[in-house]
Amino acid sequence: MKAAPLELIAKKLAECRRLVITSHLRPDGDSLCTSLALAFAAEQMGKQVAVINKDNIPVPFHSFPDSSKIKIGQIPPGIYDAVILLECADVSRSGQESLEAYFKINIDHHYSNDYYADINWVNPKASAVGEMAFELCQKLPIKIIPPIANHLYCAIVSDTGSFQFSNTTARSFETCSKLVLAGANPIQVSEALFHNNPPEKVKLLGQVLSTLEMNDKGDIAVISMFKKNLKALNLSEIDTEDITTLARSIKGVTVVLFFKEMARGVFRVSIRSKGKAHAAAIAEHFGGGGHAHAAGFTVTGSYGRMIKDIPATIEQLLRKKCSKRTRPRPGRWTA
């Protein structure tokens, strides 16, 4: 009988002496905190471990305990015995350019994954990759010490929006309960995640919400953030999940589109949905992907045209009952 991915990963980690962990571009709390938890676990096993991401750590995670363990840059070729890629649908999603010869371990909880690695463990039913990492830690010859428990708890709380998002399950609560018993501090995590905003972040919140536009039916909300907003407030990397959460709280809204300017004429569109509106199906229509209620894609073109055409296209998709995944279109969508 073929071994399950979880068993294969545990076996491979036991064999490795040097391990590197990376995650997706524009890392979030789930990927960052899970990286740190796995690093602590591997160090307990006597491994040499590095955590290397392509993109900088966003606020507020840059000030978290142990964040200094995360290095920014490229993984050099030929140094490590294996690389763990967290929440990367494919290798390019990591932004790492020298992984061809590495033994790859792919751990993800997104629907849109290419199963590209030597070991692929993809579980879309998991609330967070942190939940999967807890399961992995239970298979390893380690003790789940408070730093591991705290990071995994933070990963799950972050990705479930403090248990408000649709990916929250009974298993989420069960796992977090066990993590608290192992030493996670819920109050400390909540303070760090949700009550740690600099004044500039609150000002940005007001500027972004002032761009709010709604379709005639009132079920699609559009908000936008431009590079000039960040520059004026001297902000570069910042977590914006709470902004989309506020827009999604509007009565009757089932889809929120958050346009974030990445470069001139290039926007990253984050989709948050609720009910039967399937964010991943919408994103895949435009060449992106993600979760059932949290997804995204990249679009190029005229901003004025995009914020009209894209919501109109999504209205048509919703009328066609866009409640399950569609066949993905490769590449960026151009308006």
Describe the 3D structure:
The structure is a single chain. The protein is of the alpha/beta class and 335 residues long. It folds into 2 domains: 5-194, inorganic pyrophosphatase (n-terminal core) (Alpha-Beta Complex); 199-334, Diaminopimelate Epimerase, Chain A, domain 1 (Roll), CATH 3.10.310.30. The protein has helices at 5-15, 29-44, 129-139, 146-159, 170-181, 186-194, 199-209, 227-232, 241-248, 279-285, 303-319, and strands spanning 18-23, 48-53, 70-72, 82-86, 104-108, 119-122, 213-214, 220-225, 255-263, 266-273, 289-290, 294-300, 333-334. The strands form 2 sheets. Strands 7, 8, 9, 10, 11, 12 and 13 form a 7-stranded mixed sheet that branches. A 6-stranded parallel sheet has the order 3-2-1-4-5-6, covered by helices on one side. A hairpin with a 3-residue loop joins strand 11 (289-290) and strand 12 (294-300). It is globular and about 60 Å long. The N and C termini lie far apart (50 Å).
In brief, what are we looking at here?
This protein has 335 residues and is α/β, with parallel strands linked by helices.
Taking pLDDT < 50 over at least 5 consecutive residues as the criterion, the unreliable ranges are 323-335
Number of domains: 2
Computed CA radius of gyration, to the nearest angstrom: 20 Å
Count of helix runs: 11
Per the CATH scheme, the topology name of the largest domain is inorganic pyrophosphatase (n-terminal core)
Strand content: 15-25%
Main beta sheet: 7 strands, mixed
The SSE order reads HEHEEEEEHHHHHEEHHEEHEEHE
- In the CATH scheme, the class of the largest domain would be Alpha Beta
Full CATH superfamily name of the largest domain: inorganic pyrophosphatase (n-terminal core)
Distance separating the two termini: 50 Å
Mean pLDDT metric: 91
Structural class: alpha/beta
Helix content: 25-40%
Number of strands: 13
Examine the secondary-structure arrangement and name the CATH architecture of the largest domain. Alpha-Beta Complex
Shape: globular
